[in-house]
Write a structure and sequence with these properties.
Radius of gyration: 15 Å
Largest sheet: 7 strands, antiparallel
Number of helices: 4
Distance between the termini: 32 Å
Order of helices and strands: EHHEEEEEEHH
Strand order of the largest sheet: 1-7-6-5-4-3-2
Number of strands: 7
Mean pLDDT: 90
Shape: globular
Helix content: 25-40%
Length: 168
């Protein structure tokens, strides 16, 4: 099991969704949901601390691999991420992604935190800082009106350059 004390939050994104905690949880952990709003990627999670966490391309190849750190439905889900599906990323230390789901009146407050165990350059963080708002806004749209957003997503060039620079 991964120790989380060495991870420090680097990106925090908060969004409010007109849904129940159970529906938001399902949206984050059900492959049929993630495929719709997460760029075609399907989550595959072994629902227990220490279980496997994967994000799979439509053809079944692994894009992200990790380990479930916390599994507390429908309130908190935390797992490590290693991006295996992009050149140069698999060599980076794992990050820790945590979803916290809280009732907020008639809505749910979803807080996503991306934490790292190393002094990660801002250029590398730019990918998540650009991607998370789009991904979670698409989840919100899917849960609220049944339609994910159509957003063209690609890693920022500064992020790709930073990854290449680490190999030198």
């Amino acid at each position: 099991m991964v120790g989380v004390s060495q991870f420090k939050p680097k990106t925090v994104y908060v969004i409010y969704i007109a849904a129940t905690p159970e529906r938001v949880w399902q949206g984050l952990t059900d492959p049929a949901f993630t495929r719709q709003y997460f760029g075609g990627l399907a989550v595959d999670v072994e629902p227990r601390p220490g279980g496997a966490f994967l994000m799979l391309y439509p053809d079944g190849r692994i894009h992200i691999a990790g380990e479930v750190v916390e599994w507390s439905p429908p309130r908190r889900f935390s797992c490590t991420w290693v991006v295996e599906g992009m050149p140069g990323f698999a060599e980076l230390p794992a990050c820790l992604v945590t979803y916290e789901i809280e009732q907020a009146g008639e809505a749910v407050r979803l807080t996503m935190t991306e934490a790292h165990s190393w002094d990660i350059p801002d250029a590398i963080l730019s990918g998540g800082r650009q991607g998370w708002p789009a991904i979670l806004s698409s989840l919100k749209s899917l849960l609220e009106n049944g339609n994910p957003l159509t957003i063209k997503m690609a890693p920022p060039q500064e992020m790709l350059d930073a990854i290449k620079g680490l190999k030198k």
